[in-house]
Known about the structure:
This protein is mainly β. It has 4 helices and 17 strands. The model is unreliable at 1-8 (pLDDT under 50).
Amino acid sequence: xxxxxxxxxxxxxxxxxxxRLHDWGVIRAxxxxxxxxxxxxxxxxxxxxxxxxxxxxxxxxxxxRLLATFVVWGRDNGDVLLACxxxxxxxxxxxxxxxxxxxxxxxSEASAEVPLWGLVGPMASPLAAWGCTNTGxxxxxRLPDGAADGVAVARWLWAGDEPAGTSALDLDxxxxxxxxxxxxxxxxxxxxxxxxxxxxxxLVGGVSFQKGCYPGQEVVARSHxxxxxxxxxxxxxxxxxLQPGQEVFNAGDPGQPAGLVVLAGSLPGSGPVALVELKxxxxxxxxxxxxxxxxxxxxxxxxxxxxxxxxx
Length: 312
């Protein structure tokens, strides 16, 4: 049973920490054909998005490369909200608007009206991952857990006014938990760098292979059904703070980069952590290093989900 709007708290329990997500933004899709339009543009089934559920979705170029990733949920008034990296929102919004044509759908930026907060810790809500509750101008989305020192840490996306009863959370910790969750968020610096499977998007529920066409669908489907993936995302630890878009090298093959940092932050107790898209062959030995073949050493850590055995 989906949680009702009555389950949505107005204040967080003691021990919950929060941070204003200035690096996230929100697009609103309104109109009777908003879901139908988005369904034809994104990697995820939006037409059948149910109340009480959010979904992860990708927006691809015709070459199947991710232009952006979204957390998508609906509101009681029929609007659909799409949360993404703020630095690519204007470009992605403009591109989506080009394809609305005669569809009864109006797209607009809603970042100022719908401020986003990242919360970690306990919440008085029964939501599982990608569960969502909303009431009026306030929404709560349960994100997949992060991990600190091997312990799962609950993460939430709060859309609305600042949640009462929370203490401050630092940005590096939030980003570290985001990276350790294994759920990619595309930024401007990594836009068009990855086919969805290269960052495990289909393994975390970001791709539907049962829905109809969308830009890049043939490339994404071919990668899935032919099983020819040569790159996957992995969680890596480091002694230095990494940055999205930073190259990663394998010392055994120094002539070209082995991968690219997708997300990066730092966790208390375990230090810098990153989600990194990598050649699978780079895991066979030689050592992984940041920025150069002799750069800071990177250490492989556990993903919170399983990569298929023939692609690990």
